[in-house]
Amino acid sequence: MPDHVSLWECLLPIRKTFEQYVNLRPVRLPPGIRGPLAGRGPEDVDMLFVRENTEGEYSGTGGRVHVGTDAELAVEVPVFTRRAIERCARFAFERARERRGRLVSVTKSNASRYAYVLWDEVVAGIAREHVDVELERVHVDAMAARMVLRPDTIDVVVASNLFADILTDLGGALQGSLGLAASANLSLDGRGPSMFEPVHGSAPDIAGQGRANPIGAVWSAALMLRHLGYGQQADRVERAIDAVCEDGRVLTGDLGGTASTAEVGDALVQAVMR
To answer: Could you say which DSSP state residue 8 is in?
Structure first.
């Protein structure tokens, strides 16, 4: 099935229908895992991305005409509303308050004169209510470079649907493997349930082979526990992940190991139970 069909017939309608308007993605290099950045360790790669999850570049607004002719035309229009930007940005400011007090807002407002300028204006307005949080505005291309060159300067990031999607895949590489990357699709106003999933999706190319890294799914479960109010239990799961990674003996191939999915899962269970 083509990617655009599976995405638009399943995942995106779930996010939109249940108003899962925040996609939360931690980017953290676990102890013992060697990331691709020479000289950078776990203390340098510890970011939290807040992605607007229901509109923006993935609004679905557009269409195709004159299909199959040399005049065929495709139009896809990003949609940004003040309401969606504001609720996502408020969540990001609160997370920055809980962490190191720094928030980066990522746009491309030098080239996009309307949508991202509105984003900048709304975020700047909310910043006046959060004077204890340091706000930076960074263009998406500069942000990609900064994640590689100066990851230690990044705390919390808020960005649009497309930009945060791309940057967090880069983040997955920086934390050692996309197989580690976790995400939470959060419905925060009571309109529907939230949903928790590894960033890499279902990985159908390796289905049934026992090669998939289960840590991204388990880390997503920790995000679920924290969202449901079980913070201590979430901490325990995340400590188990760190322990297995730091030990290094039971890891899947994407992290340089030879263990199967089940073997890593068993190691995580044992670490949780200690």
So the answer is: I
Domain ranges of the chain: 3-201, 206-274
Q: List residues bridging with 158 in a β-sheet.
A: 50, 105
Q: Which runs of consecutive H residues, i.e. helices, occur in 150-260?
A: 161-174, 215-227, 231-247
Write out the H or E segment, with its range, that includes residue 201. Answer: none
Side chain identity at residue 229, one-letter code: G
Q: By C-alpha distance, which of 233, 246, 245, 223 is closest to 272?
A: 233
The one catalytic residue in 108, 120, 230, 254 is 108
DSSP H stretches of helix in 99-202: 115-127, 140-149, 161-174
- Helix, strand, or coil (residue 226): helix
Fold of the domain built from segment(s) 3-201 = Isopropylmalate Dehydrogenase (3.40.718)
Cα 241–chain centre separation: 18
If you search the block for the tokens 């526990």, which residue do you land on? 225
> Cα-flanking dihedrals φ and ψ of residue 256, to 5°?
85, 5
Decide if 153 contacts 146 (C-beta within 8 A): yes
**Is 44 among the residues known to form the active site?**
no
Annotated catalytic residue within 169, 242, 254, 266: 169
d(C-alpha 242, C-alpha 114), whole Å:
43
pLDDT tens, residue by residue, 76-107: 999 999 999 999 999 999 999 999 999 999 99
d(CA 228, CA 231): 8
How do residues 163-194 score in pLDDT, each as one tens digit?
999 999 999 999 999 999 999 999 998 788 99
Residues recorded for the chain? 274
Amino acid (one-letter) located at 147? M
58 included as an active-site residue: yes
Instruction: Verify whether residue 16 is a known catalytic residue.
Output: no
Cα 145 to Cα 46, 62, 167, 243: the distances in Å are 16, 31, 10, 30
